[in-house]
Amino acid sequence: MDKECRISAGTVIVQQGRILLVRHGAAFHGRDFLVAPGGGVEHDESIIQAVVREVKEETGLEVDPYKILFIEDMISRRKRVIKIWFLCKIVGGQLEKTQNAIEEGIVESKWYCKAELKDEVVYPSILINTDWHIFLKDSWETKYFENKDDDADF
């Protein structure tokens, strides 16, 4: 069986020691979880355009993506998703609950400090295990992560 393939874009926004995450409600995968904003690239847009659009749709914020942080290669029983994660800076807008977010099952967009995430399910997991300030350094080198889970359905 051929797997469906998808290209996706994600953003990491770190500001004043906090990170911007969106909470998907339990209806999405049977439990709620936090994830950095992002989503699929549409056929007529670049990956950069997808990052900007997804953040605006999910949070109301306008961003400027300026560095690729990591590439996540996710393989489940039915899909393969290549997600490119960008470090972004905010250039406009305001954090708000958008109609698109509601339609996607996002129940909250919020700035989190590291201590608030200790009992949360967070994707991508590198956000739990890494000091976010290292992303901002010129010495950061793009990372590749493979996430293979035949039981998952992402």
Structural account:
With about 150 residues, the chain is an alpha/beta fold. The chain has one domain: Nucleoside Triphosphate Pyrophosphohydrolase, CATH 3.90.79. Helix content is about 15%, strand content about 45%. It has a 5-stranded mixed β-sheet with strand order 5-1-7-6-10, covered by helices on one side. Strands 2, 3, 4, 8 and 9 form a 5-stranded mixed β-sheet that branches. β2 and β3 form a beta hairpin. The longest helix has 13 residues, at about 45-60. It is globular, with a radius of gyration of 15 Å. The mean pLDDT is about 90.
Give me the secondary-structure topology:
Elements: E1 4-12, E2 14-15, E3 18-24, H1 26-29, E4 33-35, E5 38-40, H2 47-59, E6 61-76, E7 79-93, H3 99-103, E8 106-112, E9 122-123, H4 126-129, E10 143-149
Parallel strand pairs: 1-7, 4-9, 6-10
Antiparallel strand pairs: 1-5, 2-3, 3-4, 3-8, 6-7
Please outline what is shown here.
The protein has 154 residues and is of the alpha/beta class.
Q: What tags apply to this protein structure?
A:
154 residues; alpha/beta; Nucleoside Triphosphate Pyrophosphohydrolase; five-stranded mixed sheet
Helix and strand pattern: EEEHEEHEEHEEHE
The residue ranges in which pLDDT falls below 50 over 5 or more consecutive positions are: none
- State the fourth-level CATH superfamily: Nucleoside Triphosphate Pyrophosphohydrolase
Distance N terminus to C terminus? Answer: 17 Å
